[in-house]
Amino acid sequence: DGGITQSPKYLFRKEGQNVTLSCEQNLNHDAMYWYRQDPGQGLRLIYYSQIVNDFQKGDIAEGYSVSREKKESFPLTVTSAQKNPTAFYLCASSIGGPGGELFFGEGSRLTVL
Amino acid sequence: GIQVEQSPPDLILQEGANSTLRCNFSDSVNNLQWFHQNPWGQLINLFYIPSGTKQNGRLSATTVATERYSLLYISSSQTTDSGVYFCAVVDRKDPGNQFYFGTGTSLTVIP
To answer: pLDDT confidence of A40, banded at 50, 70, 90?
Structure first.
């Protein structure tokens, strides 16, 4: 089945540790996105990539890093510099361009103890 | 960036009732989508509707692009309709084609 797979679904980490969230898509989409959602809030854009080997910061990029070495993959690293990393992280993709429809993975819930 | 406002922020309905959710945006858009976030957090695509009207079962949506708003209609609501409804838009002037989300409408349908 075509879709977006995020892993792990749940992750617990100690403060000060870096963690990497995986996002893989087999939809042949050019554009990929990472969003953060806090309880009771909307979605905020962390990073996005419109093409392989290129990505741009979103509204809340500080404390996060990404790479886009393959079209199918867009991993997100939550670094120790992120002050409040506990959140729900959502990966999405679209065909790219102004009219592309956005599709989401199931999300990864990160809790920092 | 473009501003996206949704109303009402919260809505409680009796099962079987109808409702209208609204999304206002501050500038011209290339793309507008409605999503339903279920209790497990997953975002489900409801409509891709930059303009015009679409229907899917009990749900329908209308976007009036020239007046910068979109409406989502839910008829004969069911408890499974509960969750948060988001609209998202792409600013026509944004070369990065970012999606901007509203803050959502939280819907609770009670039996």
So the answer is: confident
